[in-house]
Amino acid sequence: MTLTLYYAPISCSLVPYIALSEAGAAFEIQVVDFRHGAHMSPDYLRLNPKHKVPVLVVDGKPLTENVAIQLWIARQFPQAQLLPEDPWDSFRAISLLAWCASGIHPHLTPNVLPQRYCDLPGSEASVRRCAQSMLRENFQVAEDILRGREWFFDHFTLPDAYFFWCFRRGRQFNVDLAAFPSCQAHFDRVSARASTQRLFAFESETLRKFEKTP
Which of 20, 108, 128, 191 has the greatest CB tally within 10 Å of its CB? Predict the structure, then answer.
């Protein structure tokens, strides 16, 4: 089986990168350079007409959407225990993945691309302010879940990786996160994992290469 992950630095494609690393999977990386519009090229649009990352290509067949990719990884590599063993908890974990994808992620993008959400001149600050208010509301939900816990379940699972990315982006957008110490502690624990350290190293190297090819 050959696996190729289409990845862009900083983006949510780091989530399947971490999941594949946690699973001990052998995979190749194809970096998608959004700066130069690689995601809009004819070749990439044939792969994913939604012009987004991540895409996981499995033996030549593309799979899109983060939740689907993560569930495929969990089922293909069950020994990694990326979902809880208990059936009910497994569905709860899928619910958390869906929440990250549809409940948190959409409030991150307006911070970097506010013009997609309102084309009224001078509205950028208002769009960001509203998005950050919704982010804090969602982070409070996570704070309540994580208080007194290391992970969302009794060991590291896929929701930990996805929420890690969500919280990381909030930090990068300078959202006021002082009210969420449990989320911050969770972020630090995920950051320390070998899979995440591998991601950080690859991301840094990719960004260095970008700097050399403006």
Answer: 20
